[in-house]
User: Fold Alpha-ketoglutarate decarboxylase from Jejuia spongiicola.
Amino acid sequence: MITNSFINKKVKLVFLTLFISSNILIAQQQNSEFWDHVRFGGGIGLSFGDGYFSGTIAPSSIYEFDNNVALGFGLNATFNKQKGVYKSTILGGSIIGLFNVLTELQLSAEFEQLNVNRTYDVNLNLGKENYWVPALFFGAGYRNGNVTFGVRYDVLYDADKSIYADSWAPFVRFYF
Assistant:
């Protein structure tokens, strides 16, 4: 004979299973909506010449809150070597905010923090340097689909510490 206790346990088990299943489905739907707004991009740089090599990889991602506003982060890894002069490793990250004033006009603000580790050739007697350098860029660009071309300005530019040659820098930004 089936008791009320047995039926209660079965009913509780069925409701618990339905509750867990519905939460998993809702979480998957919410997760799917989140990833629909995430865009990935970044940059790759390669430069070489007579005794010089520089390579950079800089992946990034943004979350588009709507068609006008996005926020994201990026990583940066660069290796430079000038034969007989120095070699350096530069690692860091950045936070970026994008605002599309019009579909074609994109404004940006980006804070970047890089660790520079540079070793000079022993003949120069300069030894080693290891320091952090911040950069705060404000930029504007022309946007067409997934690509933005523009220029940015580093308001924290320090000619003695920055890894960039100038406070003004052109950029090309891709996000897919």
